[in-house]
Amino acid sequence: MSTQLHTWTWLTWLAATLVAISVTRNLFYLTLILLCLLVVYSFIEDANQRGAYPFSLLRFGILVSVLSMLFNMLISHFGETVFLTLPEEWPLIGGPYTLEALVYGLTNGLVLFGILIAFTDFNQAMPVRMLIRLIPRAFFPVAVVISIAVTFVPTTIRQFYQIKEAQMLRGQRMKSLRDWLPLVMPLLVGGLERALQLSEAMTARGFASAAPKGGNTAHRLAMVVSMLWVMAGWVVSTRAGWETLGLGLILAGALALLAALWWAGRQVPRTNYLKEKLRTGDAIVLMGIVVIGLALYFPFEWIDRSSLYYSVYPLLQWPDFDPWIGTALLGLGLPAYVIGLRKR
After folding, report:
1. Separation of alpha carbons 194 and 159, rounded Å
2. What pLDDT does 216 receive?
3. How many other C-beta atoms can be found within 10 angstroms of the C-beta atom of residue 194?
């Protein structure tokens, strides 16, 4: 698949996207981030040669933004630009309706839409097997269960399209809720059949039928003690003057927990048939993420970070725009550039 960047590259890109969306409510920056995410989505969708969902992602985002605007306008009556006033005695909806509340609701809707697109891009670009490999070997039964749960959604979507096309060939038209019954029932029956076939196949292969080894209790006890150690450090850090000791206990407990997980994973055999390698495309995307981090957090004198902390209250004004931050945020669209290069 031409969308295959390294797993940790995609995870780093997703984390950088979520951080960029979370640190600002500036409409200019949010719009720029959304455009980058939509471009990445279009390249991934084109590379996969299939749609992600049976509905338009852009229409869904518009719906979320409109609902967020209306909801915030109805419950929040703050701001100085009043364009409508209802009687105060009306419950919930009574009071002034302001332009500031409307724009603030739009901002929250764009944030939710951006988070949705970011996870959609990540889900479409990352094969499930690569995500499952991130789970520690000590929890291999959990990895199997998660892989089954994650692959259920795309399998159900494919079956949905197949049943819909078959029903349309028979002359079925989806005009009302009653017309959807011939589609829902085969979808439900097909899902149950797949579940039974999968359970029979796993039973035939002896999944989870082997008894645990005799020495498996030691590493479990080590993991429990490590987690208790971390909790004790957190409790100690809440006392005045003991913050340093508490932080030290938390770090020591976290390291002990990682060591216990590694110890437990060594007792589980594992074979890697495909090893990932960092390539030039990964370096390009990671460099863009580093530039975003420097622009958002490094104290450069020529960058105006006050534009990130924009608020519509108490009076709506145009947000400021720093060209350095705007240019850095374009780095979120670098996966689209890499995918486009690999398609040539």
Report:
1. 11
2. 59
3. 14
Any idea which residue has 């990682």 for tokens? 258
Contact call for residues 185 and 170 (beta carbons, < 8 A) = no
Q: How many helices (H) and strands (E) in the chain?
A: 12, 2
Under DSSP, the state recorded for 211 is P
The rounded distance, in Å, linking the Cα atoms of 188 and 142 is 25
In this structure, are strands 95-98 and 82-86 parallel, antiparallel, or unpaired?
antiparallel
Phi-psi region of 272 (alpha: psi -120 to 50; beta: other; left: phi over 0): beta
Contacts of 3 (CB under 8 A, 6+ apart): 43, 44, 47, 48, 124, 125, 335, 339
User: Concatenated DSSP letters for 77-130?
Assistant: --SS-EEEEE-TTSTTT-EEEEHHHHHHHHHHHHHHHHHHHHHHHHHHHS-HHH
pLDDT tens figures, 270-300: 666 667 788 888 999 999 999 999 999 888 8
- Decide: 285 and 5 in contact? Cβ < 8 Å: yes
Decide: helix, strand or coil at residue 50: coil
User: pTM of the entire structure?
Assistant: 0.73
Interhelix angle 7-22/99-125, nearest 10 degrees:
180
- Interval 47-87: pLDDT, tens: 665 545 556 778 888 898 899 999 988 888 888 888 888 88
Q: 160, 187 in Cβ contact below 8 A?
A: yes
Beta bridge partners of 96: 85
Length of the chain, please?
Answer: 344
Q: Find out whether 110 and 30 touch, Cβ atoms under 8 Å.
A: yes
Angle between helices 7-22 and 280-297 (to 10 degrees): 20
